[in-house]
């Protein structure tokens, strides 16, 4: 018995030693236990994406126009379960790449905002096939890889106006919030005012959604690990209980149950067919938008989380940032190949860093937990859309905090930032918001006599977007994009 215990301890110590040497625990002032706890914490705070991403990307049966991935011969629930598998695999690949290649405690998964842009704008509003949308994600990933490999990050960053970069997060937050509130029946269409307050005192979905939303806010405010996924889960359970006890009619608060499927062949590789017969300018705009948001969201998140962990150098930069950027690019490319929207680094990684996570071991734990979550894929199809979209409102509200980075006392910043933020939710398009900010930036700079703050790239982008808006809205394309 004693020999067996000694052998187990030696084996455990040996594995811990290998991990400590590989990830550099001593150099980063951490240990295995701290890294594991940090990884679990990060996973709990971002695990909601396994449920939310599929519910956004799958074509909603309640909306008459196609607004996401629709698979012939498969039900909505089966499509959701496929996309849950794809979400998990993409997140695991990206996060494990972060662990072993970049050795940073940052976790990755398909990003909120970009999945909504994919479904509601690219597929829904522009009418581009979901296969072509996946092709755009794939191409964006390849561009990201190429630019990261040649170290062109700083040149790309200089190409975009600073107020637009700072405003994108807030605009996306508003965009996510209105999508979530609509799914919860809290915000509904109105002929006179376009949108208005829904029947929150009579509609069971709205009533339960409001309950779930404020429950989740309360958990989030208390700093409860996994608050969003707990809020979604409890809201779902109350919905099932209400139907079980006969308080509402069957399937009022719950989706029709279908068998989950792990077969992702209908979506994996679909991007290849999407490369055929594309309209070049519209495709380029979609690729540009995916790249812009992914690039700056990831760069901003890396610096923000790096600040929490004390990773930044004296100049406020993250050393070797190209490595985590490459992990992001690889994840995006793989995600596009498998069938999901752009992968990005999650700000929720800060929760693990605050727990002491300092190395790729934290990311390794997150990646392994994503793989283990494959066992719970059937749960994703059982969660109603209104419950999963609670996450959009919570994250949307949190993202509004990005406005503090904008120099509102400078009108040449206020105009492009304000246009970026306003146009996104009002046109249901992240791309249009970014474009509005980019077009307005050189114009106000010129009018204010600050032409020296502009670059040829600013004017080139502005002219390109003006041309696009003219072609898009003049009827020349006649909806065929």
UniProtKB/TrEMBL annotation:
It is a multi-pass membrane protein. Keywords: Cell membrane, Membrane, Transmembrane, Transmembrane helix, Transport. The chain crosses the membrane at residues 80-102, 109-128, 134-152, 164-184, 204-221, 228-247, 267-293, 363-383, 389-408, 420-444, 456-471. It is found in: Cell membrane. Its main location: membrane. GO terms for molecular function: purine nucleobase transmembrane transporter activity. GO terms for cellular component: plasma membrane. InterPro entries: Azg-like, Azg-like_bact_archaea, NCS2. Coiled coil: none annotated. Belongs to the nucleobase:cation symporter-2 (NCS2) (TC 2.A.40) family. Azg-like subfamily. PANTHER family: XANTHINE/URACIL PERMEASE C887.17-RELATED, XANTHINE_URACIL PERMEASE C887.17-RELATED. This is Putative MFS transporter, AGZA family, xanthine/uracil permease. It comes from Haladaptatus litoreus.
